[in-house]
Design brief:
Chain B: Keywords: DNA-binding, Phosphoprotein, Transcription, Transcription regulation. Chain B: InterPro entries: CheY-like_superfamily (IPR011006), NreC/VraR/RcsB-like_REC (IPR058245), Sig_transdc_resp-reg_C-effctor (IPR016032), Sig_transdc_resp-reg_receiver (IPR001789), Tscrpt_reg_LuxR_C (IPR000792), WalR-like (IPR039420). Chain B: It comes from Solirubrobacter deserti. Chain B: This is Response regulator transcription factor. The complex is a heterodimer. The relative contact order of chain A is 0.12. In chain A, strand 3, helix 3 and strand 4 form a beta-alpha-beta unit. Chain A is α/β, with parallel strands linked by helices. Chain A starts with a strand and ends in a 9-residue tail after the last helix. Chain A folds into two domains: 115 residues, Response regulator (Rossmann fold, 3-Layer(aba) Sandwich); 53 residues. Chain B has a six-stranded parallel beta sheet with strand order 2-1-3-4-5-6, sandwiched between helices. The N and C termini of chain B lie far apart (44 Å). Classes of the chains: A alpha/beta, B alpha/beta. Chains A and B meet through helix 1 of A and helix 1 and helix 5 of B.
Chain lengths: 186, 216
C-alpha cells in the first residue's frame, strides 16, 4: 500500500482525489492540506511514499515546496499537479526534484498510473533547450543531470557540493527561470 | 421532499468527483448529470431533466459563461451557478450578466456550494462577501459618474468565435463546431477585429485571456 499526502488549496480537488483513490487498489491518502505550510508539516510527520503537490498554493509555489520536501531525510516521491501542465513546467519540476508532472485534466486511470510511478516522464528537448539557453554553464550541468534522472545525491557529489549547497543551487536555477532575481548563494 | 436535480460541468474529472461528494452529502441535492465542457453542458442542460446547472467558468469549447448565456436564454426556469477559481470583478460581472444567479469561489466550494444551490433554488442570488463589496463599489462609482454600464461590443456569437480562435482552432474547425460556412467564420473574424480595433490573432488571444474566455 502506497501512502500519499495531497497538498491543494481547492477543497473540491482534495475531496475528489480522496474519493477517487479510495476506490483504486494500492494507494491511500494519509493526509490532505490546503497550504504549503500545513502540507510540509504533514509530509515531514507522516513520511508518505508520495506527495502530490498543486503548483499554485496560497503561501508558496509547489516547486519550492517540492525542493524542501526532497531535502527531507528519506523523502517521498513528488508529483506536481497543475492545471497548466506544459513542457517547460516538466523541466522546472525535474530541477525541483519531482518525479512527474500531472495535468489536472488527466483522466483517473492516468492519475493513478502516474502516482504509482508506472509512467516514466519524458522531457521535451525543445523546452529543455529553450530553458537551458537562459542558464549559466555551471547551472546547465545541474539541469542536464537532473533531467536525465541522475539521483540528487549523485548530482551534489559530482559537483563537489554538500547536500545543502546543491539544493541552494537548484533553488537559484528555478528563481532564474521564473525571472526572479537569484537569491544570494547559501 | 423535493430534490434539486443538478448538472455538474467541469473539465476536471477529479473536481467533478469532489463537487459530487460535497453535494451528495445533502439529502435535498442530487447530481443527475456530469459533463466535461461547455458545449456538452448546453446540450445536456437543454435536453435532460435538470433544475440547476453548476458550471465551471473556464472550460474548453465553450466557457461556463457562454454556456450560462445559452442555457438561461433557451430554457426558462433552469437556474445556473458559476463556479470560479478567480476572485475577480470582471468575471463576476460577466457571470451575472450571463444570467447566472450566483458566483461561487472554488477555494471555498466545500463551504459555499451547498448554500449557493439552496439559495438559487429559493430564487435568491448567492454571492460571497467580497463579491457583494465589489458590486456595491461598482454601483456607487457608476452612480457618481452618472454612467450606464457599457454594452459588450461583441455579439454572443462573436464571443464564441473569439474563444475558438484563441484556442488555436482553424477556420475549418470553427466552421464545423458552430455549423457555419468557412466564409461566414472569416467574415465574423474580420468584423470582430474591426470592432475591437485589433490587427491580428495575437491581440485577439490577449483579449480572450483578459475576458476569461481562455486560460493564459
Amino acid at each position: 500500500m502506497l501512502e500519499l499526502v495531497i497538498v491543494d488549496d481547492h477543497p473540491a480537488v482534495r475531496s475528489g482525489l480522496i474519493g477517487l483513490l479510495e476506490e483504486g487498489e494500492g494507494l491511500r491518502v494519509v493526509a490532505s492540506a490546503a497550504t504549503a505550510r500545513e502540507g510540509f508539516e504533514a509530509i515531514a510527520d507522516l513520511r508518505p511514499d508520495i506527495a502530490l503537490l498543486d503548483l499554485h498554493l496560497p503561501d508558496d509555489d509547489g516547486l519550492s515546496l517540492c525542493l524542501r520536501t526532497r531535502a527531507l531525510p528519506m523523502p517521498p516521491r513528488v508529483v506536481i499537479y497543475s492545471a497548466f501542465a506544459n513542457d517547460g513546467l516538466a523541466v522546472r519540476a525535474a530541477i525541483a526534484g519531482a518525479s512527474a508532472v500531472l495535468a489536472k485534466s488527466a483522466p483517473p486511470h492516468v492519475l493513478t498510473a502516474v502516482l504509482r510511478g508506472e509512467v516514466r516522464p519524458t522531457v521535451d528537448p525543445r523546452a529543455l533547450r529553450a530553458l537551458g539557453a537562459r542558464l549559466e554553464a555551471p547551472e546547465l550541468a545541474v539541469l542536464g543531470m537532473l533531467v536525465h534522472g541522475v539521483a540528487e545525491e549523485e548530482v551534489a557529489t559530482t559537483l563537489g557540493l554538500t547536500r545543502e549547497q546543491a539544493l541552494a543551487r537548484r533553488a537559484q536555477i528555478l528563481a532564474r527561470l521564473d525571472g526572479r532575481r537569484p537569491l544570494a548563494a547559501a | 421532499m423535493t430534490q434539486t436535480r443538478i448538472m455538474l460541468a467541469d473539465d476536471h474529472a477529479v473536481v467533478r468527483r469532489g463537487l459530487r461528494l460535497v453535494l451528495e452529502g445533502e439529502p435535498d441535492l442530487r447530481v443527475v448529470a456530469e459533463v466535461g465542457d461547455g458545449a456538452e453542458a448546453v446540450e445536456r442542460g437543454l435536453r435532460d431533466d435538470v433544475d440547476l446547472a453548476v458550471l465551471d467558468i473556464s472550460m474548453p469549447r465553450m466557457t461556463g459563461l457562454q454556456a450560462a448565456r445559452e442555457l438561461t436564454s433557451r430554457r426558462e426556469g433552469l437556474r445556473v451557478l458559476i463556479l470560479s477559481m478567480h476572485d475577480n470583478e470582471q468575471y463576476l460581472f460577466e457571470a451575472l450578466r450571463s444570467g447566472a444567479s450566483g458566483y461561487v469561489l472554488k477555494s471555498v466550494a466545500d463551504r459555499d456550494l451547498v448554500e449557493a444551490c439552496r439559495a438559487t433554488m429559493r430564487g435568491e442570488p448567492f454571492l460571497y462577501p467580497g463579491a457583494v463589496r465589489a458590486l456595491m463599489r461598482d454601483f456607487v462609482e457608476r452612480a457618481r459618474r452618472g454612467d450606464t454600464p457599457p454594452d459588450d461590443p461583441l455579439t454572443p456569437r462573436e464571443v464564441e468565435i473569439v474563444k475558438l480562435i484563441a484556442e488555436a482552432r482553424t477556420t475549418r474547425e470553427i466552421a464545423g463546431e458552430l455549423v457555419l460556412s468557412e466564409k461566414t467564420v472569416e467574415r465574423h473574424r474580420t468584423n470582430i477585429l474591426a470592432k475591437l480595433g485589433m490587427r491580428d490573432r495575437v491581440e485577439l488571444v490577449r483579449y480572450a485571456i483578459r475576458r476569461g474566455l481562455v486560460e493564459p
